[in-house]
Every structure is written in structure tokens, then in C-alpha cells.
Specification:
Largest sheet: 8 strands, parallel
Bound molecules: NADP nicotinamide-adenine-dinucleotide phosphate
Oligomer: single chain
Number of helices: 11
Radius of gyration: 18 Å
Strand order of the largest sheet: 1-2-3-4-5-6-7-8
């Protein structure tokens, strides 16, 4: 399933994340420029959450989209698990919409599974949809068993995405979750597609298999990580950047076409899982 904007156009193969953005006044303008550079390059899907900076990232999204045609954008936000029931979700959804300065969300996600029964969350999501406050709903950080449970509750099959951690160095979902979702035409939004930070990230971006693939394609290692995810049907990476030059570099990954030889090189260095692996989370 592709993410289609209200205008009927696809949101593009790569979205933009916003975690940690909008939290510091001194970097706000730079972050706005980065998001807008992405919007101008067709990265029209913006992913945020009520959790990020306690609403600061949603407010940044609201500022970034000013002056753009709302119907050509695809806005995604997430509700905390403890808010994902009848008691709080309607108020929380309205608060997210207000922070983003929009009348509707294209996609509203359950951020991760908590104590509220899935059936209740689905019932609320369907009500938000019927009321026109959201166009679609989905989930995040749900593993294969949770997804099966979700599909078994009334209207659970209306879920359009599972947003999960997925990058070249963390391929566990390829064993069972990804094929199961592909079979049902449920998209995967790949978060932390650049492995965010830390030792693993340095190990990935500097790994000879990645740098050699980048050399062959006159691309950067970050672009190779994104291009790898784009070879998977139904997967959209949502990298986050606070710098326009990085955002444009990320957009350019859509033009990198990895060959069978490239994929074999990457597979040899970062093998696909051969058994079930619990979902990685950030
Ligand atoms: P990420 O996108 O894997 O990595 C972000 C880091 O990569 C930033 O430090 C950024 O630094 C750097 N970066 C971006 N483009 C780059 C490039 N071309 N070259 C080198 N470095 C680059 O990590 P993430 O933010 O954790 O994940 C992406 C998005 O997924 C989040 O922002 C959020 O929207 C979503 N997410 C969802 C969940 C969930 O539970 N559903 C969890 C985590 C994340 P600069 O700012 O300097 O570019």
C-alpha cells in the first residue's frame, strides 16, 4: 500500500522523521529549513508524535507546513499507549491537530502497545476516521503476534501500517513480520533507517560493504542504507535530519538503484535473519 495524500498523489518513497526536532530555539530555523527542503523535494510525508518534545515536534511540523497545500502533504502523528483508549484519545488527537495547525491527520498511529485493549483502540481510531479527524490509522512497534491479534479484532484489518525499527544492521523483521505485512498489503514505515546514532551506526556507515557500494554508485553511505530499504516492497524509510543538506542527500537515495551484486555484498556483511528475532525498538 502506498501512502496517498488527500490530493491523490503518492507521498513519495522516503518520508521525514521529526524526533528530537523543535526542542531548542537556537536550532529551530535550521530545522524548519531542513523540513522545507525535503517538502520541496517531494518528501511530503512528515512523521511526528505527541511524545516528541512533549508536542514540540508537532508544533515544528505546524510551522514547517505553513504556505504549503495541505492536501499535497501526508501528516503522521502518534498517540501514547496510555492515551489510546476512549478516555483520552479524542482529546489527544484534537491537541495534536491543534499543534500542527491542521484539521485532519493523514495517519494516526498507536505508538506502541500498552494496557488499552487493541479492540478499544481500533474502535476509537475508526470513530476518529468517521468524524474526519484522521484519514487512516496504523500502529507502531507491534511484532508478528501482536499484528495477528490486531487483525482478529473488529476492523483490525483496516490498519494501514506498522512503523517499526528497520535498517541494514537490524533485519529481524525480514523473517516473519515483513512478509506477513506484505501479504496483507500493510505498509512498513522503517524508523531509525540510518541507525540513529552510537556504535552500531558508525559500524554501518563506515563498513567496507557499505562504503564500497556507495563508491560504485557515486553515492554516500547514508544513501546506501536508505536505498537498501527501498528495495523492499511496501517499505518506506523515514530518516530524520536537522540539516537541509542531509535531507536533500536522503531524498537523492531514491535515485540509487542497487543491483543484485550490491545486495549480495550487503547481505554477506549484514545477513538476513534465519530464525525469529524479537522486534528491535528504540
Ligand atoms: P535516523 O533517521 O536513523 O537517524 C537520525 C540521525 O541521522 C540524526 O542524527 C541525523 O543528523 C543523521 N542523519 C540524517 N541524514 C543523514 C545523512 N544523510 N548523513 C549523515 N547523517 C544523517 O533516526 P531516528 O530519528 O531515530 O528515526 C527516524 C524517525 O523515525 C524519527 O525521527 C521518528 O519520526 C521515527 N521514529 C519512530 C519511533 C517509533 O517508536 N515509532 C522510534 C524512533 C524513531 P543530522 O540532524 O545532523 O542530519
Amino acid at each position: 500500500m502506498e501512502f496517498m495524500t488527500q490530493s491523490g498523489a503518492a507521498a513519495g518513497p522516503i518520508g521525514q522523521g521529526t524526533w528530537y526536532l523543535g526542542e531548542h530555539a537556537e536550532t529551530l530555523q535550521q530545522e524548519l529549513s531542513a523540513l522545507r527542503a525535503g517538502l520541496d523535494r517531494g518528501m511530503t510525508l512528515l512523521d511526528t508524535a505527541e511524545m516528541y518534545g512533549s508536542g514540540a515536534a508537532e508544533r515544528l511540523v505546524g510551522r514547517a507546513i505553513q504556505g504549503y497545500d495541505r492536501e499535497k502533504l501526508y501528516l503522521v502523528s502518534k498517540v501514547y499507549p496510555h492515551n489510546a483508549g476512549r478516555k483520552n484519545i479524542f482529546r489527544c488527537c484534537q491537541a495534536s491537530l491543534k499543534r500542527m495547525g491542521t484539521e485532519y491527520m493523514d495517519l494516526y498511529l498507536l505508538h506502541w502497545r500498552g494496557g488499552v485493549p487493541l479492540a478499544e483502540t481500533v474502535e476509537c481510531m475508526e470513530k476518529l476516521k468517521a468524524d474526519g479527524l484522521i484519514r487512516n490509522w496504523g500502529v507502531s512497534n507491534l511484532d508478528a503476534d501482536d499484528m495477528n491479534e490486531l487483525f482478529s479484532v473488529p476492523n483490525g484489518g483496516n490498519c494501514v501500517t506498522d512503523q517499526v525499527l528497520y535498517h541494514l544492521g537490524s533485519r529481524g523483521i525480514e523473517y516473519d513480520l515483513l512478509p506477513a505485512l506484505q501479504k496483507r498489503d500493510v505498509s512498513v514505515m522503517a524508523y531509525c533507517p540510518l541507525a540513529q546514532a552510537g556504535r552500531l551506526r558508525r559500524g554501518l556507515l563506515g563498513h567496507p560493504a557499505v562504503t564500497e557500494t556507495a563508491r560504485v554508485h557515486h553515492a554516500t553511505p547514508a544513501q546506501i542504507l536508505l536505498a537498501f530499504l527501498l528495495t523492499r516492497p511496501g517499505v518506506m524509510p523515514i530518516p530524520r535530519s536537522s540539516r537541509a543538506e542531509h535531507t536533500l542527500e536522503n531524498a537523492g537515495a531514491a535515485d540509487v538503484r542497487l543491483t543484485g551484486e550490491d545486495l549480495a555484498r550487503l547481505d554477506a556483511a549484514f545477513p538476513a535473519p534465519t530464525r525469529r528475532v524479537p522486534l528491535d525498538m528504540q
